[in-house]
Amino acid sequence: MIKFFLMVNKQGQTRLSRYYEHMEIHKKMLLEADVITKCLSRTKEQCSFVEYKDFKLVYRQYAALFIVVGIDDTENEMAMYELIQNFVEVLDKYFSKVSELDIMFNLDKVHIILDEMILNGRIAETNKSRILAPLLVLDKMAES
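-> structure tokens emitted (144 positions)
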């Protein structure tokens, strides 16, 4: 099961966070700070899978952004690694060359995309067209 999904920049600022298990706010802040420090301190040559407390971290770097997924022992690390890639491809398709600013100023749309892909900590959809369909309908409604 996916426990959380984070997107952070190289300065350690969280740009997106989604938790799939209840956690108190101060515990989220401590967890994010620790996870971000752990992932940002690693070199590019090191593995993108990290054992952390009672779960695993799977992360991937795209330019100045890191995407970090926390999973339990039952989840496949490679599947999560590819999910991160798929998420970025969907963002690229929607925003055409997504940037950190796109994420910051369109956080609601990024959350919609993520919610279409992951439901209750499980992968729900990976087809890019199906993921973007509700968002494109919302865009058409906003135009008219």
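Strands lie at 2-9, 14-19, 49-52, 55-62, 65-71, 118-119, 122-123.
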